[in-house]
Specification:
Distance between the termini: 43 Å
CATH topology of the largest domain: Rossmann fold
CATH superfamily of the largest domain: Thiamin diphosphate (ThDP)-binding fold, Pyr/PP domains
Radius of gyration: 20 Å
CATH class of the largest domain: Alpha Beta
Strand order of the largest sheet: 3-2-4-5-7-6-12
Strand content: 15-25%
Order of helices and strands: EHEHEHEHHEHEHEHEEEHEEHEHEHH
Largest sheet: 7 strands, mixed
Helix content: 25-40%
Structural class: alpha/beta
Number of strands: 14
CATH architecture of the largest domain: 3-Layer(aba) Sandwich
Length: 328
């Protein structure tokens, strides 16, 4: 085991899968010569050459369309859409083609396609570069949604996604790339999709969080522990398929739950998970499900305003104290 960054973990997964399978190719804006906008694909062009690492025009339509065509003839493309907001530019291909072809062909066509993209709230990127569109994609049947929070999970889940015969959208986070580090084994490993992970054990309440909100949930749990409140932090790791069994087992143990996300509050992942908890574990709940999410406004460029509208550690702490009857 050695400590590496989130970005290094993704880079290692790409290197290893390209070494293992000559049909794995990467394409996207600036992924080759400069090694990606955030340096995540650094070294791939040097090792694998231009036939397998392609810099593309600035056209998300072209990137996804080309990747879909390649997947249909047996190639395993890993396409990069620089920011998740830009998925809107290629949503026709994603919604009407990538997600639907396997079903419409009666399973005759496989789509072994991974689309990597980055959420980026917290970088003063303003409204067009601060997307959190995982709920949108989760709402699209036929696509698997992966959203890791740690380097260990990022590497293991990306390797599994690349080997999957179905389309996967793999959400990374620009803030996580170099600020989040973790222990990752040097030997080969993978993580199955649809299996949640308990990041912290607890008995008093459950915090369901994913991506960079896991870090905030763990910070909140440390603060709450000083008050004698032991919070359990559950990271779904994949949103489609979603491991409700692990989430529900935690809720049945703690009887209180907060669902936390960076996305907008209305009609998102928190709403879906919260409803399913209320519907499937109602008899175990001592209090209503609480939600922590970002305000329903376009993301401002101003750093103070952006910080104000974002979901924060203290928001989780406040909701937890409310659930435990410890409001100040």
């Amino acid at each position: 085991m050695r400590e590496i960054t989130y970005a290094q973990a993704i880079n290692e997964a790409l290197h290893e899968e390209m070494q293992n399978d000559p049909l794995v190719v990467c394409l996207g804006e600036d992924i080759g010569v400069i090694g990606g906008n955030f340096g995540v694909t650094k070294g791939l062009l040097t090792e694998f050459g231009r036939d397998r690492v392609r810099d593309t025009p600035i056209s998300e339509d072209a990137i996804v369309g080309l990747s879909l065509g390649a997947a249909l003839v047996g190639v395993r493309p890993v396409a990069e859409i620089m920011f998740s907001t830009f998925l809107g530019c290629c949503m026709d291909e994603i919604l009407n083609q990538v997600a639907a072809i396997r079903y419409m062909s009666g399973g005759q066509c496989s789509i072994p396609l991974v689309i990597r993209t980055a959420n980026s709230l917290g970088r003063s990127g303003a409204a067009q570069h601060s997307g959190r569109t995982e709920g949108w994609i989760m709402h699209t049947p036929g696509i698997k949604v992966v959203i890791p929070s740690t380097p260990y999970d990022a590497k293991g889940l990306l390797k599994t996604a690349i080997r999957d015969p179905n389309p996967v959208i793999f959400f990374e986070h620009a803030i996580a790339y170099y600020s989040i580090k973790g222990l990752v084994p040097e030997e080969e490993y993978s993580i199955p999709l649809g299996v949640a992970d308990i990041k912290r054990e607890g008995k008093d309440l459950t915090i369901v969080a994913y991506s960079v909100m896991v870090k905030k949930a763990l910070e909140a749990a440390e603060i709450l522990a000083k008050d004698g409140i032991e919070a359990e932090v559950v990271d779904p790791r994949t949103l489609a398929p979603l491991d409700m069994e692990t989430i529900l087992n935690s809720v049945k143990k703690t009887h209180r739950v907060i669902v936390a996300s960076e996305e907008c509050e209305t009609a998102g992942v928190c709403a879906e998970i919260g409803f399913r908890i209320s519907n499937e574990a109602f008899d175990y709940l001592d209090m209503p499900v609480e939600r922590v999410a970002t305000a329903d406004v376009p993301v401002p460029y101003s750093p103070p305003l952006e910080k104000y509208m974002m979901a924060k550690t203290e928001d989780i702490v406040g909701r937890a104290r409310k659930l435990m009857g410890r409001e100040e």
